[in-house]
């Protein structure tokens, strides 16, 4: 009844079940079979079958001794199926199972039935599957909020007279990064203390918005791009510690979505932690929360 996938089993049969379940029971967007094959190649895949018909499917991607549940399709919430997966994970020396926004593969899902976001960030808060995990000793890690906004020329940030005065005094400027004009970019990257951002910003050829004080880079938003479906995209927004408290994050974010609008984007979607201070910046700019995900983990 319970199986660990190997190359002897029909991948087409698994994919057909995945497509049918996705369309009927979830708000996820179906990925093509080539990406499905790639994920299976680099993951642990489990399924429940009766008389050669598939009834449940679970795909766990891997990173060192951690496993990430990418897909868990089981409307029966069969505890024995979950225990089968966990037992096998222990046998192959995996230490923890995560349901998380930083899983190796980002899977897209629908927003408002029309738009999309690129990363299914965990399990939907208060869903049956969320409660099933909690009942089986998966521990709470965080809540991630998915946010959405249609882009326009509106939504200008409101800054106090005091902050406007500080910006003038410190010669604050928001503009596209130009290595021939701006100073201190490498120092700024180190001060961000985020290796992922440092890698993205140092390697990209896409435009980056920067906040500068007297021409020295102290904050960024980007890199900027527009997807085929007119979704405005960026990797992050950050201001170094010494320049925080002056409203630079709000200014950067406003300029970010205005520039994306000029580039042809019609909407933006993003996610952030419920306790992240950036959430207020996004909501002040006009974003609305459209889905809440919970991230969980279990030590085996």
Automatic annotation (TrEMBL):
Q: Does the keyword section mention Secreted?
A: no
In terms of InterPro entries, this protein maps to:
Acyl_CoA_acyltransferase, GNAT_dom
Q: Taxonomically, which superkingdom?
A: Bacteria
Q: Which UniProt keywords apply?
A: Transferase
Using the record's annotation, list all stretches that form the N-acetyltransferase domain. Answer: 172-300
- Provide any one GO MF term from the record: acyltransferase activity, transferring groups other than amino-acyl groups
The record's listing under Pfam families reads: Acetyltransf_10
Q: What is this protein called?
A: Predicted acetyltransferase
Q: Which organism is it from?
A: Haploplasma axanthum
